[in-house]
């Protein structure tokens, strides 16, 4: 016995079983929001709805992800922009547990995956990569930088101003004005390469060093009678010749181990046999050879 449905002569609650359905115009699915769809529970495989929350037709399948039944977008392929999906897109957060690989997903086509970065795996969720599988994040992360490559560079130079440093040790009084850099490492395993070029007068013994957030970067030095700690370079001129000008280069590699801003400064001291000496920065004692000094900080990918 066959039942005919003519035009609109059918109740909204009617359910029908059809072997084939031929349409001359279109098929309109009832729109349901996510809450209403969730209330359907576990429908029959092949059930279709239009999800108004995500603006997408969806179908219930036996293997939505990793062998678990659920809803999947009709047509699939994920979000895109432009004609014929010329630009494929993805979100910035992962808020579910995922596994990349053929075992969990039931096919070799799930062996290699990629995502456009930056992307964050939210708290309490994990992304598992099976042995032999891979997941590549392209852009936004430092996957595009190899170990030893430069991530960022900061540079300052002083004005052509003469400064007088009178310090017997490399404490805060030995800070060279204007030679100060703040840099924020992108990774805890990054290295910060510090390079300074200092123009100054000659003294009996001159020492140079770097500080990070007010603390010297080197520990105590045995065998250096000029300064107690912190010297990266000590120069002996043999006498106090403050009318002579010299150019000194110092370099040091720091491992701050943080991803918050750190502040570096250049320090200098001059003394002889426990007696402090005048050290002129950017000029000599006669105040007639004005120069500038420079300071660089470079983050190197660890």
Give a structural overview.
With 302 residues, the chain is mainly beta. It has 3 domains: 29-76, no CATH class; 79-144, no CATH class; 150-300, Jelly Rolls (Sandwich). It is 3% helix and 41% strand. The chain contains 2 helices and 24 strands. The protein has helices at residues 34-38, 102-105, and strands at residues 31-32, 48-51, 56-65, 68-73, 80-81, 87-88, 93-94, 98-100, 112-116, 120-121, 127-129, 134-138, 150-157, 163-165, 175-183, 191-201, 205-212, 215-216, 233-236, 245-254, 262-272, 275-276, 279-281, 294-300. Strands 15, 17, 18, 19, 21 and 22 form a 6-stranded antiparallel β-sheet that branches. A 4-stranded mixed β-sheet has the order 1-2-3-4. A hairpin with a 2-residue loop joins strand 17 and strand 18 (215-216). The longest helix is centred in the first third of the chain and has 5 residues, at 34-38. It is rod-shaped, with a radius of gyration of 35 Å. The chain starts with 30 loop residues before the first strand and ends with a strand. The model has no long low-confidence stretch (mean pLDDT 86).
The name of the CATH architecture of the largest domain is: Sandwich
Number of strands: 24
Report the oligomer: single chain
Structural class label? mainly beta
Radius of gyration: 35 Å
Backbone shape: rod-shaped
Domains (count):
3
Percent strand equals 35-45%
By DSSP (H or I, 4+ residues per run), the number of helices equals 2
Q: Please tell me the overall pLDDT.
A: 86
What percentage of residues falls in helices of 4 or more residues?
under 10%
CATH fold node name of the largest domain: Jelly Rolls
Uncertain stretches of 5 or more adjacent residues = none
């Amino acid at each position: 016995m066959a039942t005919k449905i003519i035009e609109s002569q059918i109740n909204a609650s009617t359910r029908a079983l059809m072997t084939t359905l031929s349409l001359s115009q279109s098929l309109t699915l009832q729109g349901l929001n996510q809450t209403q769809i969730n209330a359907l529970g576990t429908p029959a495989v092949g059930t279709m709805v239009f999800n108004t929350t995500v603006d997408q037709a969806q179908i219930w399948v036996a293997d939505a992800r990793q062998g678990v039944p659920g809803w999947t977008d009709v047509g699939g392929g994920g979000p895109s922009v432009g004609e014929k999906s010329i630009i494929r897109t993805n979100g910035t957060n992962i808020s579910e547990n995922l596994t990349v690989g053929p075992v969990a997903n039931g096919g070799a086509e799930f062996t290699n995956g990629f995502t456009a970065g930056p992307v964050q795996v939210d708290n309490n969720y994990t992304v598992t990569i099976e042995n032999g599988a891979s997941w590549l994040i392209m852009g936004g992360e430092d996957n595009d930088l190899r170990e030893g490559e430069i991530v960022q560079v900061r540079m300052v130079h002083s004005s052509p101003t003469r400064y007088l440093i009178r310090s017997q040790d490399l404490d805060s009084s030995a800070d060279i004005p204007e030679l100060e850099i703040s840099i924020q490492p992108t990774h805890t395993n990054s290295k910060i390469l510090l390079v300074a070029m200092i123009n100054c007068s000659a003294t009996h013994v001159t020492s140079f060093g770097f500080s990070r957030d007010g603390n010297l970067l080197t520990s105590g030095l045995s065998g250096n009678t000029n300064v107690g700690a912190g010297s990266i370079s000590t120069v002996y001129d043999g006498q106090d010749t403050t009318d002579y000008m010299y150019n000194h280069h110092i370099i040091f590699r720091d491992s701050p181990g943080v991803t918050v801003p750190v502040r570096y400064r250049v320090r200098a001291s001059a003394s002889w046999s426990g007696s402090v000496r005048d050290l002129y920065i950017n000029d000599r004692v006669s105040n007639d050879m004005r120069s500038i000094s420079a300071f660089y900080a470079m983050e190197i990918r660890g």
